[in-house]
Design a protein that fits this description.
Layout: H1 2-48, H2 56-67, E1 79-81, E2 86-95, E3 107-116, H3 124-132, E4 135-139, E5 144-145, E6 158-162, E7 178-179, E8 193-197, E9 202-204, E10 216-220, E11 228-229
Helix pairs in contact: 1-2
Length: 237
């Protein structure tokens, strides 16, 4: 008697587990079909440039062709944004459990996939052309180019110090200060005022020295000539 009562329950539980596994497998098939459909219509739109390929009815036909199951897929809630070229595929479908008591209560499932219209792939040559057109900044006497005007090599910090203190002062790169080839000629007294920059290896006797000014201009990277990239703002490392 107990076996006759337990056995049907066991069979029902086993069949339920098997059917749940089938539901998960079907869900995976729908998701795979969504991805494939999304990639195809993305390329089709790029080739034809017609939003008709995003029509929900057209998507429904494609999805049902890939699934090839008894349960139909509905894509009427799929959307396409022509401004951003975003594609949102929404697949709706209902599944009824194969038990008579539950036939009137279908389970509703929804799968989504988001992508964008295909616009080609940038080749390495195209990337090089774009990079050569990037703006960079140079000075008249500088041997490097800079990618930003905020580079500290372009925005000098000038300080007035005593000539006698140069023996103990160092620039931010750790180097000693030497006389400027333009204004640093002659004999200097220890109490004489001179000018130094946070970056650089020269001290100047005049604040108006051309070496303390920066005549900055913007050019394309392709026009940089033999200039090297700035170690602070343009180095690839």
């Amino acid at each position: 008697m107990e076996a006759s009562l337990v056995f049907p329950v066991f069979i029902f539980a086993a069949l339920s587990v098997i059917y749940i596994c089938q539901l998960l497998l079907y869900e995976d098939k729908v998701q795979w079909a969504l991805v494939r459909t999304g990639r195809e219509v993305s390329v089709e739109y790029a080739v034809s440039e017609k939003s008709a390929v995003m029509d929900p009815l057209y998507l429904t036909i494609k999805m049902n062709r890939y699934i090839q199951e008894e349960i139909p897929i509905c894509m009427l809630r799929s959307q396409f944004n022509e401004k951003t070229e975003d594609i949102v595929l929404v697949a709706d479908y209902d599944i009824c459990l194969p038990f008579p008591i539950l036939h009137q209560f279908p389970f509703h499932f929804t799968e989504k996939f988001h992508t964008r219209a295909f616009r080609g792939v940038n080749t390495r040559a195209e990337e090089d052309i774009q990079e050569r057109d990037l703006p960079v900044y140079v000075t008249e006497t500088g041997k490097v180019y800079h990618k930003t005007l905020e580079c500290t090599y372009l925005k000098l910090s000038i300080s007035q110090v005593k000539y006698g203190d140069l023996e103990y002062l160092r620039g931010e790169d750790g180097g000693k200060y030497y006389a400027c080839e333009r204004c640093g000629r002659g004999v200097f007294q220890k109490e004489q005022n001179v000018f130094v920059c946070n970056f650089g290896k020269r001290f100047h006797s005049s604040r108006a020295c051309q070496k303390l000014t920066r005549n900055i201009r913007q050019i394309k990277l392709s026009e940089a000539g033999g200039r090297l990239p700035c170690s602070k703002c343009a180095s690839s490392g």
